[in-house]
Amino acid sequence: MQLSASSPFDATLNHWAERLRARLDVPVLVRWKGGTGLKLGQFDSPRVTLDVRDAKGAAALLSPSLDALGEAYVEGHLDVAGTVQDIIDVAHRLAAAGGGADPDKASWMGRMVRRVVDAQHHSKNEDRAAIHYHYDVSNAFYAEWLDPAMVYSCAYFEIGTETLAQAQQKKIDHILTKLRVEPGQSLLDIGCGWGALVLRAAQKFGARCVGITLSQNQYELATERVRAAGLQDRVEIRLQDYRDVSESFDRITSVGMCEHVGLKNLEPYFRIIHDRLAPGGWALNHGITSTDADNAETSHGGGRFIDRYVFPQGELPHVSLVLSTLQRGGLEPVDAESLRRHYARTLQCWSDNFEAKGEHLKSLVDEKKWRIWRMYLVGCQWAFEHDEISLFQVLCRRGGQSATSLPWSRRFMYGGA
């Protein structure tokens, strides 16, 4: 099936479709401004329909990197119909087969650009602006698709059948159990979100907690939640940069923070955690990592889309860089656990919630923001499922201590001795 003759892109798009069909068979119908359209595969009914609204949308299809397709969608040059899981699968297949930017070249260029501009990144003002962009969309928006505690990080599905809410509480308990948090100990949570971890640490483990965030919305709601729980004497929420914390703490948690500090700042970041740990203290870093040993971006321009629209200045280190910079920052890594499968499942839950609440979410944010988050959630799910990115929890303490103070096994992490 071909485009109608009235389309100014008839010959170009038809040639592109013929060339693409020779390499793959996808259940996609492409339409120019609602016309009859053309098929990119053999099927009775399409799983995905792509409506090309203008020349920019057509250009994105002709060189379909994830970055180009994502930009065309969020900017309204392309419309798509189909389940979000089918849409992201088709986008990857088009990007892989459609002649987009060479992934090796893109990764090399990305690293070169990062080296040039990295020194200008991650000042306190820049980090505050980046956090504001991502996290201050609105509390009501996040509340619609997160769990009731509003935990915005990888959950822990111990069995695999847990609800999202159960898995998020298990994640927090898993972290606090790994750290062996005891009543009366002080705990700093760097990037505390809406306060779920510090609330749980105080309520169940008896800790005295400080949670810090750069998000005004998170600060206000977390403070309100502390007050509602009657924990003002044990939990303090601060609107504060991690570089400005001066006290020492028995335990430190960093959940979803190292992605924001920048690759060049990892060693100084871990040095600050080292300096803030009291003698005998323990810390846990929970962060997304690249699966590329050279810290390159994800394939087919997915990383560029995330940097442009979702996480400005976000940078993902390979776990080897996390461990080496952590060590150079004065910390001893004691245990590292991959939760890649867990984050794929977490994102699937978030994406399912997002799709179920789609119409209501459109009333909370503008169309562009809605489209960004819709593609971001399912795109990240795909990336975790296909080993493009991962997540590691690294348990650590100050380096140079006696081995006799280490536990003999990992049993203590699961409620054992």
Question: What is the topology?
Answer:
Blueprint: H1 10-21, E1 28-32, E2 38-39, E3 48-52, H2 55-62, H3 66-74, E4 78-81, H4 84-97, H5 103-117, H6 124-135, H7 139-145, H8 164-178, E5 186-190, H9 196-205, E6 208-213, H10 216-228, E7 235-239, E8 249-255, H11 258-261, H12 266-276, E9 277-290, H13 302-309, H14 319-328, E10 331-338, H15 340-356, H16 358-362, H17 367-385, E11 389-398
Parallel strand pairs: 1-3, 5-6, 5-8, 6-7, 8-9
Antiparallel strand pairs: 1-2, 3-4, 9-11, 10-11
Helix content: 40-55%
**For this entry, what is the oligomeric state of its chains?**
single chain
Contiguous uncertain segments of 5+ residues:
1-5, 100-120
Quick check: average pLDDT?
A: 88
Please give the alpha-carbon distance between the first and last residues.
Answer: 67 Å
Please report the first level of CATH classification, the CATH class of the largest domain.
Alpha Beta
Q: How many domains make up the 3D coordinates?
A: 2
CATH topology of the largest domain: Rossmann fold
SS-based class: alpha/beta
User: Strand portion, in percent?
Assistant: 15-25%
> What general outline do the C-alpha atoms trace?
elongated
CATH superfamily of the largest domain: Vaccinia Virus protein VP39
Query: How many separate helices?
Result: 17
* Sequence of strands across the biggest β-sheet: 7-6-5-8-9-11-10
- The tally of beta strands, per DSSP, is 11
